[in-house]
Amino acid sequence: MNPSDDVVRVARAFAARTVAPLLQAAGSDGALERLPLVARDAVAAGLIADGRDAQAEALALWGADLGILASCGALVELGATCAGVGMALHAHALAARLRLDVSLPPATTTVVACPISPRCPPASVLDDPRAEGGSWVPQSYGAGELSSPFEAVWAFAPAPDAPFELLAFVRGARGWELVHAARPDASIETVGAARLGLRACRLLRVTPGRLEANVVAAGDLARRLLHDHIARLWLGMAALGAGTARAAVQAAAGYAVHRRQGGSAIARHAAVEELLGEAAARAASAEQSFAEDGSLVGAARRRLTCLADAALAVTQSLQVMGGNGYMEDYRMEKRLRDVEVLRTSQGSPVDLRRIVAASLVAAVTS
Amino acid sequence: VSPTTIDGMHSAERRLLPFARILRDQRPRGLWELDTSTLPRPLQRYRRELRAFAERELAPRRLRADVDPDGWDKMDLLRTAARAGVLTGWMPRPIGTGGAWTLRHPLLLVAALRIEELCAVCGGLGLLLGANELGLLPLLIGGDLTAAARFLVPAVRKTKRGEPSLFAFAITEPDAGSDVQDTQGATSARIVTRAKRVPGGWSLRGRKCFISNGDVADQVTVMAALEGEGLESWTCFLVDKGRPGFAVGRHEKKLGQRAAAAVELVFDDVFVPADRVIGPLRGGWALARATLDASRGPVGAIAVGIARSAFDAALEYAQRTVVAGRPLVEHDDVKMALADMLMELTAARACIWHAARFFPPRGEMAAIAKGFGAESSWRVCTRAMELMGDGAMLHANRAEKALRDVRLNQIYEGTDQITRLALVEAQWERSLARADARAASPEVTVMTESASTRLYQSAGPRTTRRTAAGPVDLPILYFDASVVNVAVRVPIGPVAELLSGREVVPVAVRGKATLVLTVFEYRDTTVGRYNELSVGIVARPRWDTRLAATGIWVQQLPVTTELARAAGREIWGYPKWVTPIEWSQDARAIRAGLPGELHIEVARSTWPAPTIRMPMTTYTELGGKLVKTVLRTRSPLHVVRGARTWLVLAGSGQVSDLLQRLGAERVRPAFGLYSERFTSILPEGDLVAGPGARRTDVGSEQRAAAGEVSVP
Fold first, then answer.
1. Which of A71, A327, A84, A363 is nearest to A201 (CA)?
2. 8 Å CB contact of B253 and A350
């Protein structure tokens, strides 16, 4: 069995064994207090690494030896059970990969502040923050002092209770810089559960300001790391959305078979068939969006269409279930909340369209 | 646009000729103000008052009520709204708080204005304050002014005193959601809430779910089927929450509109006095449909209000969030998104106001308003999410709340799919019914003259029965017909002799019996086109001396088509056979009869003739049992005095021989009736047994024997 199949299989088993029981608890989001145990089990399962085993690190999500398709496949499986838990593991794995790429020693929890929030800058700025309009990006001054033209960025992060370290992409004298802050506590604030979705994943508000930080990468390396990081982030979010959509369609189909109306199962009604057919096609399309293409533009394009399809599949599935779909008992409303966050955060569709368009224009111009 | 350019544009404006300047309204006004300015002045004032109330009372409560729907004091808000007159604005002063000038305008428009303003601050709180009107709608539109006065006036008075007395509407059941809002699905809906007749009233047993405001309502309008009957027996009951056996069950945990609870209501042999039946028995289906027709427009307005809150949240966020050195609102992509949202909102509101101006409410317009309002509002909310990016997911920024809230509007009061079906049914119900007729009798030419467009809708759920001549949908609908009728008084002796051994006896008036000869020309029905001649005797069941029990014993009933014959004989026991029946009419008279046997003629009135509306009850025997059938019609019949009516027996035959035997040959009709625009609904009959015996649905016995087919 190749590593790709293996990690997908492991993710499926992990979701069934560890994540699904969490959702049996009361409340739409399940037993959020047991999330630290989930992270520990994920390390044991090999989905994420804690930095103590180099081989495990290479084979974990977004590991150096694991292809894009494999990581996305695993995230699809996690998204099918709980996109919030999937996002936490995704964020953990992305940060671990970034630390590995710049040879930082392993740390339990690292937050990556990426200047794509609250809105993602245009492609020209992602390429070179000194380009016109580069004021989208936080700036570094001399001895590790950061400033930001906007209020704050939001970042998803794993492991709720661990001490944080911060990796932030900022604009420096040589273009992009990746800075590392070992004690960023004053700049990071946890956003509570009063938000739409992905509540199993910690959401942080990072306020660049006076912060002690070291530059760990700069110039072309930092730019490449930034592009790779954003591409992986977007692909992973798309994969979680695709998994969510798949589960939603399966749940809706199961409901439609058992729910009777007008003397027959609603699955036989034309209106429901139309909803289910559209949802199933969109969900399948979302799941087939992925390829071994780690480019920023490719990721933008895939995330844009994949999550649009996934969101439509979920809302159509909810519609199949009518009033029951709107209630927490069936957890379809959780899928709707999760997929909408996946669709609109960390680069909204508006931003993605502009990045895709810029790439097209650049290709035609050249 | 630079300030210089703007100055230049203003200069150009000033250079326009004075008349051209008059034609250009350049006053800076928001779209809300522009929309408001299109309303009559009382409604403009009303809209502004509601907006101020919502900002003052709802805005401070909205986030808390959403996060902790069980932990905030909703009664405090209800009392405040009651004192402010928000809950009683639908009732004019001095009983309610509605201004006379405001309520001169369509009530649904007033309701749409009110609910949009409330929901523009919070969808859940808006629903909390608005669901009361849904609950009392069956009372308002039930047509029973006495019931409305008895139940609504005290509740309004109490509410005005600051003690909210609210209503809720209970229709949905755990196993019957969309089923009971859709004509076709309703036939086989699994209804569990039943009403059983008990001394002094009814006993309700069953459950209702997803009932908005079921937790705070004092009274609930409950749709329940009668014991042993199907959905066609649906009847509306007004249930007081203090009655033993009534309980509020589980509170649903909803995605949005969380401030207003959706609860389960449990009825465990709840006694409902007979005077709390709203509308007629078995009239619940039509009442529920009418209620939904009236409420769907305001539900669209709820969606628009919520979408407006998403727009407001997005605009506010875009103004205060600085990205790349400029507020978001100055970015072109953000402007595009805001413009998209405004266009959707304005179009949806225009659609809803248009639909709300119809009185009485139109089902198709309500469906359009609700469907378009809900779907475009959903798009507005998703656009707001895109515009705000990461900021959208935070509860404090309100966009995610609007998204969660507005999703419900595509589901309740009929899902988007049900409203589409309702739209098509309401718009083309006659064509659909005609298609049924063509399928039943392809040789029949269906006429296109207009009949009652509401007939199909008011007929309620339909079933299909097999007959020897093919399937027949019940009830049979008569869209377009003419009828002529003469009444002849004959000696009672021969008539009594004819009925001896039957379960009915002739009704004697001054010692004589009354024969009724009626000829119908059915031009457009769900069993095709045909003619029918009825020889009836005014009679009553042998054991029932009440005037209300009087009906027509159908002695003979020739018809012109095989399907009509088979349906009549097999379903009701009508003594039908197939024979030619003539019908003609001109400016002077209506003539009908059996060729070579008898002739009926009624002269038209030369001046406006008096009209009467009368129920038509027939008695027949089926399988040795008496069957009573009440033909539902509201068509007025012109009354013609006897001197202008003729009955001529022209030869020998089955009908004329009978009439001669009964002594009708030598008698002039006492009076005649006619109508050229006759519509009616013929349901299945009831088996009528002797005193104390249980009423039984004929259909239930026959269905058991013959099997039932749902209307596809």
1. A84
2. no
Asked if residue B676 lies in contact with residue B622, where contact means CB atoms within 8 angstroms, the answer is no
Tokens representing A271 are: 């209106």
- Gap from A259 CA to chain B (nearest CA, Å): 8
The ipTM assigned to this model is 0.94
Residue with tokens 């030869």: B651
**Residue numbers of A between 101 and 120 with CB closer than 8 Å to B:** 117-120
Give SS3 for B212.
strand
Closest CB to A262: pick one of B179, B393, B411. B179
- Chain A within 8 Å of B332 (Cβ-Cβ)? no
Among A25, A26, A23, smallest CA distance to A86 is for A23
- What does DSSP assign to residue B255? S
Taking chain B, what is the end-to-end CA distance rounded to the nearest angstrom? 61
How far A238 CA lies from chain B's nearest CA (Å)?
A: 16
SS3 at position A169: strand
- Contact criterion met (CB < 8 Å) for A350 and B411: no
Name the E strands within B498-595. Answer: 504-506, 512-525, 530-541, 551-556, 582-585, 589-594
Question: What are the per-10-residue average pLDDT scores of chain A (366 residues)?
Answer: 75 94 84 83 90 80 91 96 95 92 83 86 89 76 62 76 82 87 82 89 82 87 96 97 98 93 83 96 96 93 97 97 93 96 94 93 89
**Nearest-CA neighbor of A251 among A270, A274, A278, A279?**
A279
A271 in contact with B at a CB cutoff of 8 Å?
Answer: yes
| Site of tokens 């309009």 | A133
Q: What is the dihedral of CA A319, A320, A325, A326, to 10 degrees?
A: 20
Burial class (CB in 10 A: 0-12, 13-18, 19+), B289: buried
A206 to A84, A147, A178, B400, B421: CA distances (angstroms): 20, 12, 15, 21, 50
Provide the shortest C-alpha distance from residue B185 to chain A (in Å).
4
